[in-house]
Amino acid sequence: MIVEFKYAGQSRIVSGLRDTHVGLATNSVRDPAFFRGTMGSPTLFREAMASLYSVVVSDYKFHPRDRLAFKAWLDEQDRKFLANLGNRTEQAKLRIESLESRRAVLDQRRIDRLKPFYRARAEFFEWVYTHQYELKYLLDPVITVHPDELSFEAFSKDESSYARVGVKYDLFEKIDEFACGTTNIDFSSTLHGELDRMRSYRRTRFDIDPSGLAMAMEGGSSHKEKKIDLPESWVKGFLQVQSTMTLGLTRLRIEPVDLYNLCRFLKRHKARTSPRAMRWELVPGKRARVVFEPWETAIEMGASAVYDGPKPLTIRTWGRDRLSTLARIIPTAQRIDVFLAGTGLPTIWLVDLGEITFTLALSGWTDNDWTSGAGRFDLLSRRMDASPLELTATWDALKAQRRGTESGLSLVTGLGVEKTRSALSYLCQVGRAMYDLGGGVYRQRELFPEPFTVKEAIAAVVAPAPSEASPAGQKAQTIFGSGGVLITARRPVSNGYKLSGSVKGVDGYRYRPMLGVDAAGRILEATCTCAWSQKHGLTQGPCEHVLALRLGHMHRLEAEGA
Length: 562
Hints:
The protein is an alpha+beta fold. The protein has four domains: 2-60 and 174-230, no CATH class; 238-373, DNA Polymerase III, Chain A, domain 2; 382-467, Arc Repressor Mutant, subunit A, CATH 1.10.10; 470-560, Nuclear Transport Factor 2, Chain: A, CATH 3.10.450. The strands form six sheets. An eight-stranded antiparallel beta sheet has the order 9-5-6-7-19-18-17-12. The chain has a five-stranded mixed beta sheet with strand order 2-3-10-4-8, covered by helices on one side. A hairpin with a 4-residue loop joins strand 21 (433-436) and strand 22 (441-444). The model is unreliable at 212-231 (pLDDT under 50).
């Protein structure tokens, strides 16, 4: 998918003795979305945007070493060794030594002669990295002007981290005007360097406008166009993030000093052997403990991190080095909420900076990124069928209010809460909505410039649901349709049901899945005796036997009139 970006100006920050003007240029291809105001706490905004940039450019995936130079040197040594095998006489050895000395002198002359070229080439690549780095990678965040806040969203370079900066309007001393909408901003590495020049003693003017500051950089033009090959998996990544946020997550509230202790330990210790997990040990009524493997060093969280769950839990998470992207906002953080999905599953860090909320969603581990499709967290949620008219009605209600809860939007549309939740899931799937974990609301956020039409609504409804499009979902439908699901135990609990059953798989063997679901049908925990579940758990989505058992449970609920 080729996505086009056109900027009439460039994002710039101009700092004087008493005033600072921040101008962020928006994508002129999209519908106009602008904001103009005077910022009250510029340093808070500076630190949040610096952390967002550190997430965007981060790449923690393993990259093998480039051994071409070593192989060339090794081949040269082999050539010399083979050449010396035939030189038995002293005269031949002296001749070779003389030629080697002469060759070394010539090589040094060649290096001296090419030094200006190498220096110019290094300066050129440095200039390209500084001024045109964003032409290769999508560094431009998605910005949405909401009625109550500004939000900046972006994925990391390795697509294993998702970051969102929510700037409440309380941060601004004065708001002149704004127009709600979604667009991209010109967010270059040069702008990142200029962000560090913002100071609290300067009055800061903040503009989001298609023209930016209409100021050309030295040696460059104020007009910029980008055409970036944006993979289809980018939209899938947003869907997986939204699906994870709506799950029943284990929540812990920690203090900023706790996050500082975690980052400090990671900076001073580098594991050279496995395991490399962060092990969360949660005991009801006691403070949470984080154990770093392989050293088995435990750090106890503060007094606010008391686990209030019903039973002890041990959760292991990987990719812990990605926490270093939060280092800059630790001094300004007021409180931090950590949401744990389970062992090997995503972790969400919600950092409250007062007028700014920073959300960092980390995938289960670095190689299992949000966009690869390996972790199908959308399968953990139940989604009912929705007609194009119901989907359009939900979209119109969300577009009119710009934000809303499932219950609030269901009152506007006249649909039930379950049907509204399913319609919102469709909208998230096609990139028209998002879930704000900090506010607990759905917000309008359009990833694409084309308006939402009835044709797109029909296409979204006709397309198979995630639970049906995946191989596991299709097998689950086959198992349930053939009568291979037997519910052996079904016990109501405070937040839903505990289920166990016997499922005859497509291979003819019997398996015994067990799962816990909430009132909405979302899978909270699940196990199965099949090889897939024993190996992966829920890190790559539930197996077909778990999905088939949930289908049987939902069918019984509908028969009971629940």
